[in-house]
């Protein structure tokens, strides 16, 4: 019985988060990291029908315009960074598109100022679909054209920070 082949990614790729309105963002593909992380400029918490939600703002470097989104909180846990520092982070679930593959992933929201990549794609997002060739990069081009703002909220009157 043969295993289905996995898509090969380079150590850095353009990815899209279409549910969040992000048509293309540079991501470091990091099999050493368990979880995926997304740089946000600002985030705020609120409740929607008694459930925890998060609002956040991000600015993909190539887009120039800030994107504001809201999403239900799927988890909140301590993440230890490469320097050994633990911080409590909010996790959301969103659609990832890379190399023609779309899948739902969990991603934590954090401030990644000073990092070369606004997104880190960790191994839980890659399992059973992707493998990494660390000698290559940007194998699949941009994930798609930038998408205009799409707010993920059941209520158009979203709270402000």
Automatic annotation (TrEMBL):
**Taxonomic superkingdom:** Bacteria
Report the residue ranges that make up the Retropepsin-like aspartic endopeptidase domain in this protein. 8-141
Pfam families membership: Zn_protease (PF05618)
**InterPro entries in alphabetical order:** Asp_endopeptidase, Peptidase_aspartic_dom_sf
- Per its record, how is this protein called by name? Retropepsin-like aspartic endopeptidase domain-containing protein
């Amino acid at each position: 019985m043969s295993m289905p082949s996995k898509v090969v990614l380079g150590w850095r790729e353009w990815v899209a988060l279409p549910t969040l309105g992000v048509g293309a963002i540079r991501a470091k593909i990091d099999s050493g990291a368990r979880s995926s992380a997304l740089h946000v400029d600002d985030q705020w918490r609120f409740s929607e029908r008694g459930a925890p939600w998060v609002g956040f703002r991000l600015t993909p470097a190539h887009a120039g315009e800030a994107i504001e989104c809201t999403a239900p909180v799927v988890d909140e846990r301590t993440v230890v960074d490469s320097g050994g520092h633990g911080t409590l982070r909010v996790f959301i679930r969103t659609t990832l598109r890379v190399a023609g593959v779309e899948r739902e992933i969990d991603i934590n929201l954090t401030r990644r100022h000073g990092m070369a990549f606004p997104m880190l794609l960790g191994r839980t997002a890659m399992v059973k679909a992707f493998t990494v060739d660390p000698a290559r990069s940007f194998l699949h081009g941009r994930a798609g054209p930038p998408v205009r703002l799409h707010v993920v909220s059941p209520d158009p009157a979203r709270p402000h920070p």
